[in-house]
Every structure is written in structure tokens, then in C-alpha cells.
Design brief:
mainly alpha; Growth Hormone, Chain: A
Length: 394
């Protein structure tokens, strides 16, 4: 995955850079998503944005396990990361071209699905390559979490400013960035485990024999549900309730993602020392409370403070959740195990978008924030007995 002679820390930085680039490119589109879908000729409130955002994550769900199992089967990460980045770059470029070509919105959504199907390969397998490194699972997943948080925190404000230059600008920047990732990743060595000689289907089926993976998968689902909800409903909530423009909305989103990014690496190291249970369960409880607080804020200043608090708590629980996947998966199943985590996470993101597009539209933003935060709290409480039974392992 990197040139010979690179230290583990240097490899960790390189792989985190791939994760960062994929998330940065993705989030560039979020601050002005209503402007983008309108430029495609779609109209009708929240639903066009819901379809556009949801299509990418449907591609994630459909193809994540295929990328992961194929990588495990051949014992390679790098060529799949390159292929996923190139496919994602092409997808973003075609989405930009579609703005000028009067393409029907249904075709745009289908293209968005294909872009997501490609992009998940680069994202998921870069994290799997981090799982292959030694030095502490929490530390490695903290690096992945830092890259995720940094990409999303910087992508939001930068994307807001790019929309000011033109509605297609974020798409072209995303395409160019993923092209650079592919070019930088095409050469080098890697530290993937030996090939898993089972078929792709067998590798996926083998994970069924590890029921404890349901713990991080469940928390991955609800955590991404809240992220998907904030990406759509949060964006439109800030713009409608507080009359913020795309630039200010991007800054508001960054108030969450900045602490979420900066604290993940140290919090991953902490989880290596104290275990996974307290960061995951305690963090999820506080996270749910914070989401509810955002939706109940009377003004943008209080909402911004709540976003910062949610970001801090998210940084506590996120690397511990991903590290738990690494703890429980076999060395030759890590690509598939992380793909499974990304599948349930993408399903959670889709669920969050659906909540944003339906509950918020029918009952208002505050009810939707209450439901989303409440789900996080309920799942955390319900998981306590399970963690207590397996606390010697996590």
C-alpha cells in the first residue's frame, strides 16, 4: 500500500489520507444539497434531496460486501482502492456533466447510485488496510475516525464556499480529488493478510459465526442514522429555522465535525486502555441527549454549542466501535467485516435520511430530532446487559 521502508506510522497516515479524501469529496455536496437537486430540475421539498443522498448510500449497501470479500479472497487492498477511487472520480464528473445535459432526475439518481458503488470500495478497504496494521486497534481506528471526521468537518465549510462559485463546482472538485487519490495509491506495497481461500460467498457466510459482531454493527447503524439525519434534516433545519445560507450552514455542520475529528485519535488510544464498553455505551447515551438538544435549541448559538458537544461525544464512541470490529474479526476476514460494518452504517444513514424526509416533513423538525436522539438512547440502554455478559472480551 506504500513504498518500501515506510514505518507503521507513515502507513497509518497514508491510509488515513485515503479515508479523508473520500469523505471530504462526499461532504462537499451537503451544504447546498437543495440547490443541487433544484439545478437538476427536481422540485418538491425534502424528497429530492432524500433520493439524491440516499442513492449513494444504496450503492454503498449493495457493493460494500462485494469489495470487502473480493479483497479478502485475493489478499490485496491496493488495486481495489485504486479501482474504487477511479470509479468514484468518474461518477462525480458525470454528475457534473449531467447538470448541463438536461438529464432526467431519475437518471441522475441512478448515476449517483453507481458513484456510491465505486466509492465505497476505496473507503472501506482503506479502513480495512488500517485494520491490518499493528500497534493497537483503537489507535488504528482512531486514525480512521480522525480522517472521517476531518474529511467531513472540512468538507462542509469548503463545500458551502464552493457552492458560492457555482452549483457544479463541488462535483468537479470531488472528481479531481478522487483522481488524485487513485494516482497516489497506484504504486507501492501493502500489508494485507494472506488470501482467504474461501469463495466470496463463503467469506461473507463465515461472519455469521461471529454473533458478537452484532454489537459494533448495531451501534454503527444508529450512529450513522443520526449522521444521515443531520446531513439532510439538520442542513435544512439550520437554513429554515435560523435563515442561514450555504456558507453559514457549512460552518454549523463543522461545529460538530471539527471536535469529532480532532479527538478521535486520542480517544482511540484511550479505548485501547479502558476497553470498549464505557466509550460505546456511555458515549451513545450522551450522544442521543445531544441530538435532542440540537433540535430544541432556540437560536443558532445554542444549536452550535450543542453541535460541538455532540461532536465531542461522538469522538469518544466512534473509534471504540470500529476497534471492536477489529477485535472480533479474524485476520483474513477484516475486509469483509469492515464492509459489513459499512453496510449497516450505510443502512443507518439511509434510515436517517428517510426520517429526515418523512418525519420532519410530517411532524416538524423538533419531533424528528427527538425520535433520532431517542433511538440512540434506547439502543444504548438495551445493549448494557449484552456488554456486561461479554465484558471480559471487550
Amino acid at each position: 500500500m506504500a513504498a518500501r521502508g515506510l514505518t507503521r506510522d507513515m502507513l497509518r497516515v497514508r491510509l488515513a489520507g485515503v479515508v479523508f479524501a473520500v469523505l471530504f469529496a462526499q461532504v462537499l455536496l451537503y451544504p447546498g444539497i437543495d440547490l443541487l437537486v433544484s439545478a437538476y430540475g427536481a422540485a418538491g421539498g425534502l424528497r429530492p434531496g432524500m433520493w439524491f443522498l440516499g442513492a449513494e448510500f444504496a450503492g454503498f449497501v449493495a457493493f460494500a460486501a462485494i469489495w470487502g470479500a473480493a479483497s479478502d479472497a485475493v489478499g490485496r487492498r491496493r488495486p481495489f482502492i485504486v479501482a474504487g477511487a477511479l470509479g468514484g472520480a468518474l461518477g462525480y464528473a458525470l454528475l457534473a456533466v449531467a447538470l448541463e445535459a438536461a438529464v432526467p432526475f431519475a437518471a441522475v439518481v441512478a448515476l449517483r447510485f453507481l458513484q456510491g458503488a465505486a466509492t465505497i470500495g476505496a473507503f472501506s478497504l482503506a479502513i480495512a488496510a488500517l485494520m491490518d496494521l499493528g500497534g493497537g486497534h483503537g489507535r488504528n481506528m482512531g486514525a480512521a475516525g480522525f480522517a472521517i471526521g476531518a474529511g467531513t468537518s472540512l468538507g462542509a465549510p469548503v463545500g458551502g464556499q464552493l457552492y458560492e462559485l457555482g452549483v457544479s463546482t463541488p462535483l468537479w472538485v470531488a472528481a479531481a480529488l478522487l483522481g488524485v487519490v487513485a494516482a497516489l495509491t497506484v504504486r507501492g506495497t501493502e500489508r494485507a493478510p494472506p488470501p482467504n481461500r474461501g469463495s466470496v460467498a463463503a467469506i461473507v457466510a463465515d461472519l455469521g459465526g461471529r454473533p458478537l459482531l452484532g454489537l459494533p454493527y448495531t451501534f454503527g447503524f444508529i450512529d450513522r442514522l443520526s449522521a444521515g439525519f443531520i446531513a439532510l434534516a439538520g442542513t435544512l433545519y439550520f437554513r429554515s429555522a435560523f435563515e442561514l445560507g450555504p456558507g453559514a450552514t457549512g460552518v454549523m455542520l463543522a461545529l460538530f465535525f471539527a471536535p469529532f475529528a480532532l479527538l478521535q485519535y486520542p480517544m482511540g488510544i484511550v479505548s485501547d486502555r479502558v476497553g470498549r464498553t464505557a466509550p460505546i455505551v456511555g458515549g451513545s447515551l450522551l450522544y442521543g441527549v445531544g441530538v435532542i438538544a440540537v433540535g430544541s435549541a432556540p437560536d443558532p448559538w445554542v444549536a452550535g454549542a450543542a453541535m460541538v458537544a455532540v461532536g465531542v461525544v461522538g469522538a469518544v464512541m466512534a473509534p471504540a466501535t470500529m476497534a471492536l470490529v477489529t477485535d472480533l474479526a479474524g485476520a483474513d476476514e477484516r475486509g469483509t467485516a469492515m464492509a459489513g460494518f459499512n453496510v449497516v452504517g450505510s443502512l443507518g444513514f439511509l434510515a436517517g435520511i428517510v426520517i429526515a424526509g418523512t418525519v420532519a416533513e410530517a411532524y416538524g423538525y423538533q419531533a424528528a430530532f427527538l425520535l433520532t436522539g431517542g433511538v440512540e438512547i434506547v439502543v444504548a440502554v438495551a445493549a448494557v446487559p449484552v456488554f456486561l455478559r461479554v465484558r471480559d472480551r471487550v
